[in-house]
Amino acid sequence: MTPQDLQTDVLVVGAGLGGIAAALAAADRGARVVLTEEYPWIGGQLTSQAVPPDEHPWVERFGVTARYRALRDGIRDVYRRRYPLTAAARAWPALNPGAGWVSKLCHEPRVAVGVLEEMLAPYRSAGRIRLLERVRPVAATTDGDQVTSVTLASVVGGPDTTVRAAYTIDATETGELLPLTGTEYVTGFESASETGEPSAPDVAQPDNVQALSVCFVVEHVDGDHTIDRPDRYDFWRSYAPAAWRGERLLSWTAPNPRTLALDQRTFTPNPGDDPLAVDADQSKNAGDANLWLFRRIAARDLHAPGFYDGDLCLVNWPSIDYFLDHVLDVPRDVEEARIADARQLSLSMLYWMQTEAPRADGGTGFPGLRLRPDVTGSPDGLAQAPYHRESRRIQAVTTVTENDVSYAVRGDRGATRYEDSVGVGMYRIDLHPSTGGDTYIDVPSTPFEIPLGALLPQRMTNLLAGNKNIGTTHITNGCYRLHPVEWNVGEAAGHLAAHCLATGRTPHAVQAKPDLLADYQAELVAAGVELRWPDGVYPY
After folding, report:
1. Cα–Cα distance for residue pair 463/195, rounded to 1 Å
2. Are 86 and 140 in contact (CB under 8 A)?
3. Phi and psi dihedrals of 409, rounded to 5?
4. What 3-state DSSP class applies to 371?
5. Rounded to an integer, what distance in angstroms lies between the CA atom of residue 178 and that of residue 172?
6. Could you tell me if 286 and 299 are in contact, meaning their C-beta atoms sit under 8 angstroms apart?
7. Which residues, by range, are in coiled-coil regions (predicted)?
8. Helix (H, G, I), strand (E, B) or coil at 415
9. Distance (Å, rounded) from C-alpha 29 to C-alpha 496?
10. For residue 483, what is the DSSP state?
11. Which of 205, 209, 475 lies closest to 322, judged by CA?
12. Which has the closest alpha carbon to 158: 43, 2, 29, 306?
């Protein structure tokens, strides 16, 4: 097959939330964009990774970009137009189709895919955005401090494609372009001497990376739907991590992320609760007492009787966190083997639930649990892609540290204010167990800003970070890694690339010169990007 060469203004590698936001922003400002995606679905953690949006308590009123709000509104609109909602559900202004406790908008991933495709559609029709599907970056060329091309290999047997662009945005889930382009970056846990963070170790731990997870969706219906015994079941059934203090990973018991005490969760499928009474606000209630309700993505009682056989439950719990090894900067075959092992963990958790899990009635096993591969869009019923919580991170012009956002450090002063703010975000500093043996770090943060300097590598001049690869630390990644912040980061990067193309300015000059920065920020504000928090928001 003959390789193909493309030329464009902006190349966005990775069509997760950050990548889509970057492509939309750049195309809306007139730039020609090539957008790429490895997995069958665009949307990243919201879709192919099957993770409902983790958001702050004020998301319905402020604290996200206008485009991100349009995505959320579009998802609700699909349910109101196409699903047989009850009258009460249809009238619910803040409709939460899954009535899950983790988010005010729990929903099926396929619905988000459709809305994202719709948002891209006019730009694709006009030739402003070209989407290269089922490809991954495998090589890049540079000239000094500039990226000159990126080569993408098909994952389904097609030809390679080389793209040359004036600006390249790395919106991959793990910062895949950073090693390919020779861009300086860090992985894992920085040392206290490097960052000044009170929670950092004395010596850097580059291999100490947060757990990844392979999520899946189940329903509970009549019949025996037990899967074949997973190949690694014996290992995972007996595995007892140190943080579990003698308890097994495959259980209803796990550390409370905030207190580290061992908590006993419950599991009651289709409990017949009132979904309209769910108040998904993690500042008030973590919501994980009954795991069935925690990340429920379809609540049958919000719909006409009989439309759903049962609720749909998204499994993204401590028991499927994979922290035996990391997958950054290892050979491809090792990466694939470790992700396969993470998939074995998820299947083992399902098999344990179907066959051995204790029930409230004193029995064991829930054979009625059935995988829904049609919901995840994958043959085996697991999410198409692993949920990577932590990426390679650029050595940035500005690095956000624990001292900038931790409530224990900042107190009522609030987070560090950045003159070059390109957006806002809020989430607790939420670190899952890591490959270095650390347990949870889950502590309050203060509502924070996203500095433009965190999107800019110190050296490379035309490569921008557009995902979790921005200038955070292992610690602050814990609050900057969630859906609305990723979207905001990508949107700011897309705006910046188009702004620099239109004005002939460089990203570093825009960040460093107040008058140029003001011009760029004015464009962000006009597009509905909030640069500051209003008064009255609080840490949680």
Report:
1. 24
2. no
3. -90, -45
4. strand
5. 10
6. no
7. none
8. coil
9. 10
10. H
11. 209
12. 2
Token pair listed for 89: 């559900």
CA distance 70 to 471: 27
pLDDT at 540 over 90: no
Task: Determine how β-strand 393-394 pairs with β-strand 185-186.
Answer: antiparallel
Q: Give the pLDDT confidence of 99-123 residue by residue, as tens digits.
A: 999 999 999 999 999 999 999 999 9
Q: Give, in order, the Cα–Cα distances in Å from 538 to each of 58, 106, 532, 535.
A: 10, 24, 14, 9
Distance separating alpha carbons of residues 150 and 141, to the nearest angstrom: 7
Write out the two tokens for 208. 């100490």
Give how far Cα 32 sits from Cα of 24, 130, 245, Å. Answer: 10, 8, 54
**What separation in angstroms does the CA of 143 have from each of 28, 181, 182, 308, 397?**
29, 10, 11, 56, 20
Cβ atoms within 10 A of the Cβ of 52, count? 29
| Structure-token pair, residue 272 | 């017949």
| Tokens found for residue 256 | 């409370």
The tokens for 514 are 């107040």
Q: Can you give the length of the chain in residues?
A: 540
pTM over 0.90: yes
Write the single-letter amino acid at 215: C
> Which tokens is 513 given?
């010169």
